[in-house]
Amino acid sequence: AQRMLEFAPVCTHRRITGRAKPMAFLATSTREELVWRVLCLLNLYRLLVPTVLLAVYMLVDNTSVGWAYERLFLFVQGAYFLLAILAIVALKMRWPRLDIQTWLHFALDALAISLLMYASGGAASGLGMLLVLPVGAVSLISHQRSGFLAVAACSTLVVLTQEVMIHLAGYAQPSDYTGAGVLGAILFIVALSTRP
Predict the structure, then answer these.
(1) Which residues pair with 21 in a beta bridge?
(2) Which among 112, 106, 116, 120 has a CA at the least distance from the CA of 154?
(3) Per-block average pLDDT, block size 10, for the chain (196 residues)?
(4) What is this structure's pTM?
(5) Phi, psi (degrees; rounded to nearest 5) at 22
(6) Whole-angstrom Cα distance, residue 28 to residue 21?
(7) Contacts of 112 (CB under 8 A, 6+ apart)
(8) How far apart are the C-alpha atoms of 190 and 39, rounded to whole Å?
(9) CA distance 180 to 186
């Protein structure tokens, strides 16, 4: 194995076009394939979250899921599920390109989960922890060096904004800001720990 590694820079790949390709192409295509797979797994998560939340909402009495704004909760979880189904098509077609699709997936997750938190009474509902996996995954596959900071900052701002809005609506206590702040710190830690 050590001997193969010594010759790795001079190895070529002829399968794609019939011509010699440098080994760097393999590393790039393998990484890109891994990123597409991570996005597919993240989409599976996106399909499971609204399904499980709907089951909890329908089957569990006295749950904190969706209690503040029931109609908004049902609408958002339905739209989240439908957009996850549409994302399957986009992932299969690999359109739009990888970096755009990565940020679109993150924006969808951040918006949907923050609206689900809002409809459930804010950070006190515990739904904010659903952001941990998307933040970690997008931080891990982000090409930019500062991409992980952008992911953590955006997700923290979304959590804090929804907490302010739910407080202004009268469904949250001032002490709930502590929970939102701790969640923001956790999101930063996750983003930093998955930094490539």
Answers:
(1) 13
(2) 106
(3) 39 42 56 92 97 96 92 97 96 92 95 97 95 94 82 95 95 92 95 83
(4) 0.83
(5) -70, 155
(6) 12
(7) 76, 77, 79, 80, 83
(8) 17
(9) 10
